[in-house]
Amino acid sequence: MAFSSLPEVKPYSQGQAKIRNSEPMKEGKWIGLEKIDWTDEDGRDRVWEMAVRKTTSEGGIDAVAIAALLKHPSKPVSLPIILQYRPPIRNICVELPAGLIDKGESPEKSAIRELYEETGYGGKEFEGRIKVLEVGSTIVSDPGAVCFLIALTLHDAPYRD
């Protein structure tokens, strides 16, 4: 089985990104802390601590992650990814394009906006040519610590030469 040649990718560097300071907080601008008193399956009373986003949309979804299938008539389908420094893990992450849903914005509109902001796909050049094929059910990335719901969106987009 032959693989198509992929374009050369430059190594990603975190450049000047580094942690200057870290300190405990009780409350943040974007994230709060909650203590949950609950009863488990065996009837025992328990306590849980979690982080909660303060900017959840009206639909209850906090963010979108975008799987954009970039199609070209003579090249393999591509999936754009983002390399981004993430302070909580003090390292670079490989991610799908993603972002928070703005107030009054639908997941579909947010996904189109974030795809453009993070990859350059979108805007006037692609107006009407990027289709949201599906908004999946919500997913969570760390349900034991954070109440943060993400909608995975599937897109069909033309490949940019």
From TrEMBL:
Keywords: Hydrolase. Residues 59-161 form the Nudix hydrolase domain. PROSITE patterns: NUDIX. GO terms for biological process: nucleoside phosphate metabolic process; ribose phosphate metabolic process. The keyword Cytoplasm does not apply. Signal peptide: none annotated. This is ADP-ribose pyrophosphatase. InterPro entries: Nudix_hydrolase (IPR020476), NUDIX_hydrolase-like_dom_sf (IPR015797), NUDIX_hydrolase_dom (IPR000086). The keyword Protein biosynthesis does not apply. GO terms for molecular function: ADP-ribose diphosphatase activity. GO terms for cellular component: nucleus. PANTHER family: ADP-SUGAR PYROPHOSPHATASE, UDP/ADP-SUGAR PYROPHOSPHATASE. It comes from the Eukaryota.
